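Example record

The entry below shows one chain as it appears in the dataset: sequence first, then structure tokens.
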Amino acid sequence: MKFLLLNGPNLNMLGRGRDPAHYGTQTLSQIEAAVRQRATELGAEIVSYQSNSEGALVDFLQAHAQESQGIIINPGALTHYGLSLRDALLDTRLPIVEVHLSNIHGREEWRAKSVIASIARAQVSGLGWRGYTAALDYLAAVLREEEKRVY
């Protein structure tokens, strides 16, 4: 199994200037390493990518989705208005889990609005960096269950 791990704008600043009260102290590299370690335990592979540009995320999806089985994405601020990202995610026809480090439903009202949520199988919010590994565990389990049903 191969999963894409996408991170949107400003997530490259985790652990280096992003509000630690909301986003924790882990860097994006540390989070990606934890996800890769868990993927190895599950017999899966992770291909990660971060960009501050919506177009670059779309380009990455279009280039890599065909050889992948699922997507874990923290769209950052694109959560609220990233319609071209949403369309690109939808076009992959892959299962998607949307991840947020902070509890977006317990913060400012505008943060709770997600243009991605309606096309995602699940949304993980408020678990900090552990939300990424929870998303991976969920995707791997669901895909294995669906695989068993096919055969």
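Notes for this example: Residues 2-150 form a domain with the Rossmann fold fold (CATH 3.40.50.9100). The mean pLDDT is 94.
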